[in-house]
């Protein structure tokens, strides 16, 4: 039986999807920031690599708006045993913005558009 190349690609890419525990999704949902995961309507676009040779699939992609939310995401990732990577623009040839491997939690920093600095004398 011969399979069409597109079907072979579909089967191969499906096997690369990381197992995402329901715990990490529920731990991150409802905290005031957007969470994208395999099966969510925005996941395919959010997990699109710059270089298709390195098409890693993150477990979850988050879009925090505050420093406290970033802290919450890191704490949940650590508690649930996930690696964390920040994505903040630009392109990474080896898809480090997607974790550099399957199953990472991505903290997308696109909502952080201002910088502030406090100097103490």
From TrEMBL:
Alphabetical list of Gene3D superfamilies matching this protein? Uridine Diphospho-n-acetylenolpyruvylglucosamine Reductase, domain 2 (3.30.43.10)
- Needs which cofactor? FAD
Pfam families, per database record: FAD_binding_4
Listed GO MF terms? FAD binding; oxidoreductase activity
Q: What is the residue range of the signal peptide feature?
A: 1-22
Which of UniProt's keywords are assigned here? FAD, Flavoprotein, Oxidoreductase, Signal
Give all residue intervals belonging to the FAD-binding PCMH-type domain: 54-121
Which PROSITE patterns does the record match to this protein?
FAD_PCMH
UniProt KW Aminoacyl-tRNA synthetase keyword:
no
Question: What is the name of the protein in this document?
Answer: FAD-binding PCMH-type domain-containing protein
Species name: Ephemerocybe angulata
Its organism's taxonomic lineage begins at: Eukaryota, Fungi, Dikarya, Basidiomycota, Agaricomycotina
